[in-house]
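Working notes for the structural subgroup meeting. M.R. asked for a predicted model of this chain before we commit to crystallization trials. I am recording the input and output together here so anyone reviewing the notebook later can reproduce the run.

Input as submitted:
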Amino acid sequence: MKKILILLMCIIQISLTTICTAQEDKTEIVETAEMYLIEKNDGTQISGQLTSRDMREIIIQTKEMGLIVIPMHVIKKIRPLKEQELNEYGEFIPAEVFSTRYTFTTNGLPIEKGESYVLVNLYGPEVHIGVAKNLSIGVMTTWLAAPAALSAKYSFPVGEKAHLGVGTLIGTGSWLSNNLVMALPYATLTHGDRRTNFSISAGYGLVWDKTQYLPDA
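Returned structure, recorded in token form:
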């Protein structure tokens, strides 16, 4: 009987040891100086060095807030940062949506779906919104609400670091001159990214009076 009890105790002890081993924390200790960008489901971006990760959470070392624990279920994307995305102090430089344009003109880089921006210029305000992949629309006017114009731009890649944007501005004299119609179809070739780029643009402007039906170049 004693032998049977001892055997049962050994079996139970072995079983418990197996269960405990199976339930060990599978945390991966990450030893790297590489910078990562973590994008959360709400759009928040956090950059830093990964300290550890497992199936439940990621721990990241940031320069601003120290160690941050982020649950995996709130993370949308994790990716390593490229050298050109960091400044001289090793800090992440976000790619601003304003980089899709210059002071007075747009460029060939796309406004991503869901992105938007508002500009307030000396002559008036304008709003631009990404409504679909590579497609954006906008409204431009003066502080007098005349003239007023709608804009549309479609951008697509034509190389590793090149984008071509084709679009148009269509406007009216509004309440100052309701018969005045304006159009400016254009194309812009941009080389670079949202941090550094240069562009070559070409377009053709038309202005005409609706009552005459004869556009003047």
